[in-house]
C-alpha cells in the first residue's frame, strides 16, 4: 500500500467521527464545514459540500473557471 492509499483509508475512517474536510483534490485533514458551492443542480443536496476554508476557495475558483468557459462558449 502506498502512502496516498493509506491517507485515503485513514481519512475515510476518521470522517465517521470527526468533522474533517472532504477535500478538493484528495484527503484533507483540516476542520471543515458545510458550504454552498457555485453550482445549480436540480437536486439541491448536490449544491452543498463539506470543505475547509482553503479547499472551499479552490472549489470556488474551479467553478468560476468552469462557468466562465461555459458562458464564453455560449456567445
What does this entry look like structurally?
The chain has one domain. The protein contains two helices and two strands; from the N terminus they run H-E-E-H.
Strand order of the largest sheet: 1-2
Overall tally of domains: 1
Q: Total helix count?
A: 2
Largest sheet: 2 strands, antiparallel
What is the alpha-carbon Rg in Å? 15 Å
Structural class designation: mainly alpha
- In N-to-C order, the SSE pattern is HEEH
Helicity range of the residues? 40-55%
* Mean pLDDT across all amino acids: 87
The rough form would be described as elongated
Strand content: 5-15%
Q: Could you outline the blueprint of secondary structure elements for this entry?
A:
Elements: H1 3-15, E1 33-36, E2 48-51, H2 53-74
Amino acid at each position: 500500500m502506498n502512502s496516498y492509499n493509506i491517507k485515503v483509508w485513514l481519512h475515510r475512517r476518521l470522517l465517521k467521527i470527526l468533522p474533517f474536510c472532504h477535500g478538493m483534490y484528495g484527503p484533507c485533514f483540516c476542520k471543515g464545514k458545510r458550504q454552498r458551492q457555485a453550482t445549480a443542480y436540480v437536486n439541491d443536496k448536490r449544491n452543498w459540500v463539506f470543505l475547509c476554508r482553503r479547499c472551499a476557495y479552490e472549489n470556488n475558483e474551479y467553478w468560476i473557471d468552469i462557468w466562465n468557459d461555459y458562458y464564453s462558449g455560449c456567445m
